Amino acid sequence: MKISPEKQSRLTHVAHRYYIEDWKQGDIAKELGISRPLVSRMLSEAKEYGIVEIIIHEPEEEAEQLLKKLKLSSTIRGGVLVEDGEDDASTNDALSQGAVNLLHQVEAHRLGLGWGHLIGQLVTWLEENPQEDSTISDVCPLVGNARLPARNYQSDENVRLVAQQLSATPHFLFLPALPENIEEKKVLCSTEIYRQILQEWEQLDTVLVNIGNYPSSPDFASLVRYGNLLQEQHACGRMLAYYFNDRGKMILSDEDFAIQIPLEVLKKCHNIIGVCSAHTSPQALLGAVRSGILTHIVARMNIIQPILY
Q1: Average pLDDT, rounded, for the chain
Q2: What are residue 276's DSSP bridge partners?
């Protein structure tokens, strides 16, 4: 349909006032010295002439498009993206549910469980929503137990609770995540307990690993394990008890005494699912994706967009 330049300019002005500047129709009518019903008709005409286009973005479609772009530029094969909730707790609930749904999608059987804030939230969500139809038969920890009382880092206990809600068999590590030093780690990794968990790790088909932010002030254990390496190589995030930078480089140290699944064993797993919490930054997710380790992600849609450009 043809339209005169004068009319197009007038319809554009009205549409801009209403849709962009959020004016009320009555205020637009008063400005132009016309009736409010005429403003309404002009807005309808603006749609008819293509001056205004109304696009409704469905969350599912947006998530699908974001995942599609991510698949084209990384090793990611799939995942679950969620909208932000009203607060961090509701967002983490949605992320936890998304992670459990993804376990169903990939038909996980032998599951390795990391630690961290979202893992703790996932355990809580499962306690309230047990999965009787789960395909998972075995669950084991990917990292030792922290001395912290926080539930998020009690690996064996979280494995016990998850296995209980999934009707699966739990396997325990019974070793600390951070021994006193590298010598103690060597002793502990020579035990039968470690040998058995290593066998479990080698049989995993799916793992859930946390993607966390690298703190601006490193804790004492990290300083002992890495010295100045984390600062020198610009660490931006953490996966299990490993650190990486925004280029995806895993930062390794000969003095690292953490007891966790070896990277070479982790990389052999068929499904490596990185789970983000409500606080995970785009930079941390970008580094994790660039590492080439992850095959799937569970994250907020709002932190995917920044890493695609």
Answers
A1: 91
A2: 211
Residue 263 is encoded by which pair of tokens?
């990277």
Q: Tell me the pLDDT tens digit for each residue of 31-80.
A: 999 999 999 899 989 988 888 876 555 556 888 889 999 999 999 999 99
CB of 126 closer than 8 Å to CB of 160: no
Residue 103 tokens read as 């376990």
What per-residue confidence (pLDDT) applies to 22?
84
User: How far is CA 17 from each of CA 3, 28, 29, 76, 291, rounded to the nearest angstrom?
Assistant: 20, 7, 11, 43, 47
pLDDT, position 39: 92
The backbone torsions φ and ψ at residue 100, rounded to the nearest 5 degrees and listed phi first, read: -65, -40
Q: What is the pTM of this model?
A: 0.80
Question: Which structural domains are found in the chain, ordered by start?
Answer: 5-48 (1.10.10.10), 59-308 (3.40.50.1360)
Looking up tokens 């990391």, which residue turns up?
114
**In sequence order, what DSSP letters do the residues of the chain get, joined into one string?**
----HHHHHHHHHHHIIIIIS---HHHHHHHHTS-HHHHHHHHHHHHHTTS-------HHHHHHHHHHHHHHHSS--EEEEE---SSHHHHHHHHHHHHHHHHHHTT--EEEE--SHHHHHHHHHHHHS--TT----EEEESB-B-SS--GGG-HHHHHHHHHHHHT-EE----SBSS-SSHHHHHHHTTSHHHHHHHHHHHT-SEEEEEEEEPPSS--HHHHHHHTTHHHHTTEEEEETTEEEETT--EE--TT----B--HHHHTT-SEEEEEE-TT--HHHHHHHHHTT--SEEEEEGGGTGGGG-
